[in-house]
Specification:
single chain, mainly alpha, about 70% helix, elongated
């Protein structure tokens, strides 16, 4: 095998490990993600799996990165072509609800589960999760502020409060879908978002 093919094959194998690790971690948590279980699931040796990451923590961080890539692809990128302002914010929320209701991972929202698992801890994994959450909240806040600037939302709108409430809706949606298997949850979340964002004067023709 040529060096180039060897590198490509190593990259594909690493991606297989991360993809499987993401699916497993969504159900069993990042701490439940072991080198031994991944090796068994993928028909590899423990040394073969470990050789791609070095440590369990490095594997966990790679899985967090993969979850972030999935979320970016399924939520913000789906709303990219929508004009800035309230229309973009609504599109982001719809993509967010869709992402959760389609349950792309067997355990539901990876970040909800991982945050609950690591929020009381310290270390690089907790820092990575907190950092990604802060970036997403910042992005939502930016879209809210743009909506206020162009008159799509009232000037006295509190961006931080609105972000807090939108995040709360999505956390409740994931909880209802995963713990209660509530088939009405997505509709409730959409109605909650609609009620929260409202219909501003600029929407009325």
């Amino acid at each position: 095998m040529s060096p180039r093919n060897s590198v490509l094959e190593a990259g594909r194998t690493r991606q297989r490990i991360v993809d499987r690790g993401l699916a497993l971690a969504s159900v069993d948590g990042l701490e439940g993600l072991t080198i031994g279980r991944l090796a068994t699931e993928l028909g590899m040796s423990k040394a073969g799996v470990l050789g791609h990451f070095g440590t369990k923590e490095s594997l966990q961080l790679a899985v967090v990165d993969a979850a972030a890539e999935m979320f970016a692809r399924e939520v913000p990128q789906r709303a990219r072509g929508v004009p800035p302002g309230l229309a973009r914010l609504r599109a982001l929320c719809e993509a967010w609800v869709s992402y959760l209701e389609r349950q792309l991972l067997p355990g539901g929202c990876f970040f909800t589960a991982a945050a609950a698992e690591f929020d009381g801890r310290g270390g690089p994994v907790r820092d990575a999760l907190a950092g990604l959450d802060s970036l997403w909240r910042r992005d939502l806040s930016i879209h809210i502020r743009r909506a206020i600037t162009v008159g799509d939302l009232p000037p006295d709108t509190d961006p931080d409060q609105l972000v807090y409430e939108l995040v709360g809706i999505m956390l409740a949606l994931n909880h209802s879908l995963q713990l209660h298997r509530d088939e009405q949850a997505s509709g409730r979340a959409r109605r909650a978002v609609q009620r929260l964002l409202g219909v501003h004067q600029r929407d009325v023709v």
